[in-house]
Each structure stands twice: as structure tokens, then as C-alpha cells.
Amino acid sequence: MRKIVIAGNWKMFKTQAETAEFLQGFLPQLEDTPEGREIILCVPFTDLAVLGQNLHGSRVRVGAQNVHWAESGAYTGEISAAMLTEINVRYVIIGHSERREYFGETNETVNQRLRAAQAAGLTPILCVGESKQQRDAGDTEQVIFAQLKQGLAGVDQNNLIIAYEPIWAIGTGETCACEEANRVIGLIRGKLHNADVPIQYGGSVKPENVDEIMAQPEIDGALVGGASLEPESFARLVNFK
Ligand code: 13P
User: Fold this and answer.
1) 221 touches ligand 1 (CB under 6 Å)
2) Where along the chain do its domains lie?
3) Choosing from 38, 98, 105, 165, which is the catalytic residue?
4) Coil, helix or strand for 214?
5) Which atom of ligand 1 is nearest to the CA of 93?
6) What is the pLDDT of residues 184-197, one digit of tens each?
7) With 0-12 CB in 10 A as exposed, 13-18 as middle and 19+ as buried, what is 71?
8) Is residue 204 in contact with ligand 1, taking CB distance under 6 Å?
9) CATH number attached to the domain at 4-238
10) 211 by DSSP, 3-state: which?
11) Which one of 28, 68, 143, 221 is most buried, by most CB atoms within 10 A?
């Protein structure tokens, strides 16, 4: 059985005070959320502790947005897996397209981070996806297969989530057509040893389109940016019909 996983990626948004305010509005809206849906908030490092303090007894899980591969060392600006697990972080986004584009992340560093995260007991959310240019050139499959092949070398597929995020659909309001997202996710599944790995769709998921997206047979969840920042909209996503 594949799990349903709805995750918010807050990117570089929200102070600690804003995080506490979000939780006050969000948590009461989970009372009727169907069993078996995993809910994750992947937040900036300073907000992780606020989640840790306020989520006792709640079903919301805590995720970070990056982790380094070394146990410790001279890596200014990075964070280790042990620093995350110490404060009850269970998940971590790895290889988001914004990290690949602005911070020089490659399939190789993504692979190193994935393996280190798993070794420390974290569940990674590996992001893959093509740019507009790659899609227009007919390279979508080739790009994604390379991201999977190199990214997943030596990675345990029993402790993994994948997010298919076409870059041209991120933050643009332009959602990938549901059938197309479903098709690509089916292709991704075909490349895995473990067909039960949850595979999410990400890119302009919002209250207006979540039900249609989640009705697709291959799509196991969503990785949500903008629409995860407001309690009402993220609650609507988590409570999709
Ligand atoms: P948006 O939902 O804002 O398009 O962002 C998607 C994303 O990048 C999630 O990781």
C-alpha cells in the first residue's frame, strides 16, 4: 500500500512568531483529516524548534529543507543530520530545484545528502523535475531518469519519498496538467525497485486543483510551496476530497 503524503515547503518564509501563529490557525483544522494521510511541514531551520515545541500529540511531522553529507566539519552555512534528528526532525527535502539552480546542487551532491540523511534515520524527499527549456526540447524523460539514476545510487528505497516538480510549474500558477503529471510519475515509478515509494506532485498545487490532482492514480501526495503558508489553504489541501 502506498502512503499519501502532503508536505508543505515553506522555503525562506516565516519567523518563529509567524510559525507559532500559523500553528494556532492550522492545527484545529486537522480534526476531521482522514486517517492515513501523512502531513509534513518542511520549514526554515530556526522554525524547526518552534514546531518541535508545539506539535506534541499532533499528527504533523517536522521536516527540514536541506542536510549536509558530513557528520560535522568546516562547512559554513550547512547543517548536519544529527543536528536535525536531535530536535525530532524526521524528514528532509533534498535536491529541490531552487537548491540545484541557485546553490550549485548536482545529482552527485544530492546523492551524498540522500545517503547521509538515511544513515541518520531521516526520510528524504527527493525532488526531481525538468525546466521549461528541457521540456520544450523533448528532454523531460531523459533529465528525470538521470536525476533518478545518479541521485538514487546506493539509496534505500524503503525509506524514501520522491516529489516530481516540473520547474516551470513552481510558483508560476501554471500547474502541470494532471494527466501529464500522472504520466511522468508513472514513468518515475517504473524506474524504482520499490513500487511503493510515495511519489508526490509539486508545482502550483492549491485548494482549487488539489482534488483533481489527488484523484490521479499514480499521484500519492503533494509538495506545496505558496499554498502551504496560510493555515486555511494548507488545511484545505491536507483535507482534500
Ligand atoms: P509552489 O507550490 O509555490 O508552486 O511551489 C512548489 C514547490 O517548489 C514545493 O517544493
Assistant:
1) no
2) 4-238
3) 165
4) helix
5) 10
6) 999 999 999 999 99
7) exposed
8) yes
9) 3.20.20.70
10) helix
11) 221
